[in-house]
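In response to reviewer comment 3 from the previous cycle, which asked for concrete evidence that the modeling workflow produces usable outputs, we include below a single protein chain processed end to end. The sequence was submitted unchanged, and the resulting structure tokens are shown without manual editing.
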Amino acid sequence: MSYYLFPSNGKPASIAPSLQKKKRGIGTNGETNGTTNGTTNGTTIAKNGHDSFYPYGTLPEPNNPTVVPKALLADFHFTFLIRDPHSSIPSYYRCTVPPLEEMTGFHDYLPSEAGYAEVRRMFEFLGGAGIVGPHHANGWNSNANNLRPGSPVDGTEICVVDADDLLDDPQGIIEAYCKSVGIPFTSRMLDWNNEEDQNHAKTAFEKWKGFHEDALDSTELKPRAHKRKEKPEADWDHEWMEKYGSKAAKLIRETVDNNMADYFFMKQFALKAPQPN
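The workflow returned the following structure tokens.
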């Protein structure tokens, strides 16, 4: 979801007016910080606190590429869930074409919504800001750029979960995840075969019909029968062409290739299940 915290189309970031702290006191007229008499740097702001266009007429935060204040971001314990673009990109494309598009309401596929670049930028910003890392949930310190190796002030542990690792070893990854974020692990986390959990899931995902149907139709998370194996790129192309046609296969291929570098960057931080002694 990092994609939605960034300005679209590479526009410069400024803090969303609704997320700014309100000034209090005589003469402030209730405007947000950085705003005087409804203008900031010559940009007029609507009375409801929002521009009629982006960028917002608000002051940016130094080095913050998002529309969310750093102080607010620091209140969260971040987990980054990643998935190989070879799987995620065609999966999303499938939700934007018949027959699923009628259920999802998404009728256009936009490669820019892949989100991998935004995930990486968010990760690097949080690391550089001291909100995440440098200590890793696997027990080592990161030396990646912008993650402050050796910093005396540590943020929360770096916690990146790769979907393939989760599907191969659900219990091991969930146990390691719980340890990282400070939640007691119970085996019940892997089973939701009861009416209460099923109803809760359906309510939570009601807004996103069509995107999570397989998960909603499931009752447990167990290791998949066969671990994913590396597949030649030509086989991927053939699979996409068979399912979606040559034009779509070409678009999927371009989107996958454009996002692999960011995926591999994040993959190096992926959480690993503890190995038995």
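The chain has ten helices and six strands. We consider this sufficient to address the reviewer's concern, and the full set will be provided in the supplementary archive.
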